[in-house]
Amino acid sequence: MEPLVFRTLVRIVAVYLAAVGAAFSFLRLYRPDSTGPQAALVAVPLAAAIGYFMGARACRKEERLILDAIEHPRLEDGRRAVAFGPVEALGPLLTSPITRQACVAYQYLIDHESRSLHGPGMWVRDYWGMAVTPFQIRTPAGPVRVLGYARLEGANQQYVTEEAYRAAEDYVRATAYRHPTGLGEREGSLAEPISTESDAFQDDICANAKHVGQTLHEDAAGLRKQRLSEARLDAGQAVCALGYYSAEKGALVPTTQGVKQLRIATQSPEFFAADNRATARSLSWWGVGAAVIAVAAALATRWW
Predict the structure, then answer these.
(1) Contacts of 275 (CB under 8 A, 6+ apart)
(2) Could you give the CA distance from residue 205 to residue 119 in angstroms, rounded to a whole number?
(3) What angle do CA 118, 121, 124 make, to 5 degrees?
(4) Which of 66, 123, 217, 292 is the most buried (most CB within 10 A)?
(5) C-alpha dist (Å) from residue 214 to 83, 131, 181, 224, 282
(6) Pairing status of strand 135-139 against strand 157-159
(7) What pLDDT, in 10s, does the model give residues 104-146?
(8) Range scoring the smallest mean pLDDT among 46-50, 70-74, 115-119, 152-156
(9) How far is residue 132's CA from residue 128's CA, in Å, rounded to a whole number?
(10) In Å, what is the CA distance from 74 to each residue of 77, 141, 253?
(11) How far apart are the C-alpha atoms of 38 and 36, rounded to whole Å?
(12) Which residues are CB-contacts of 32 (< 8 A; sequence separation ≥ 6)?
């Protein structure tokens, strides 16, 4: 199992067990003859509420960190820091698969729609991947390298032009793909080597096991029915990155703390802070809703 998936499952289980304990303690006071299964059911929305509030708290912390960095740009060794400014390539530029543009990083998705007779269709991932060349961010506090992979946030765009489909088909035919290995990959997530310290990455994954280690796929010509998405990080583009800073390496580096070790957004620090604030607000409201359901379920056990 992938380390990220394992740590996420451990957190979910820990939160749920804490919610079970809290629900059981409350129900024993509210109704002494309550049972363990009742506490287990009440704990489901309660655990969801706790998770939402924890997520909102994390987003608020990120927002405060970004706003503080705007006023006082600084890089402290061993602390989570914000690096914002234009990107400067330190290695050979890459060519993105769908738009064929020179860039320092890209990620792409190729999906098809699975239709259902009894409900709305859903998009299923066929091909996905990413690549990064060595680069640094020229910040007000000095240049900062990025020694790890982070998904580009808020940058995905869909393309429907003839040129985009032709470029995607050429890329699929010329690329030796690998098959998904873990749970997250099988569900179609981007490969995210979040614990690997490096300045260059490349990975291409295909859901079809027949297209593994090969450079020609008979279905490549059928991409016209697929949805193409791509995100790029262009040389000179302004970004806002968050991560743990190493003074020795002059870089943001991976860490085992948190689910999102490194974050890169292709937007200004002000907009990135606003996005974190909006996300925190939404998660808080979801948490309130889940908490109300948990309380209602606990009170309703009197009639179970």
Answers:
(1) 154, 265, 267
(2) 29
(3) 135
(4) 66
(5) 39, 19, 17, 21, 44
(6) unpaired
(7) 999 999 988 777 666 677 778 888 899 999 999 999 888 999 9
(8) 115-119
(9) 14
(10) 10, 6, 16
(11) 5
(12) none
* % pLDDT > 70, the chain: 86
Write down the pTM of the prediction: 0.80
Amino acid (one-letter) located at 26: F
**Residues near 171 by beta carbon (within 8 Å), at least 6 away in sequence:** 97, 98
SS3 track for the chain: CCHHHHHHHHHHHHHHHHHHHHHHHHHHHHCCCCCHHHHHHHHHHHHHHHHHHHHHHHHHHHHHHHHHHHHCCCCCCCCEEEEEEEEEECCCCEECCCCCCEECEEEEEEEEEECCCCCCCEEEEEEEEEEECCEEEEECCEEEEECCCCCEECCCEEECCHHHHHHHHHHHHHCCCECCCCHHHHCCCCCCCCCCCCCCEEEEEECCCCCCCCCCCCCHHHHHHCEEEEEEECCCCEEEEEEEEECCCCEEECCCCCCCCCEEECCCHHHHHHHHHHHHHHHHHHHHHHHHHHHHHHHHHHHC
Distance of CA 214 to the CA centre of its chain: 28
Looking at residue 293, its amino acid is I
pLDDT digits (tens, 9 = 90+) for 33-52: 888 888 999 999 999 999 99
Only one residue has tokens 């499952």, namely 9
Question: Six-digit token pair at 233?
Answer: 């990080």
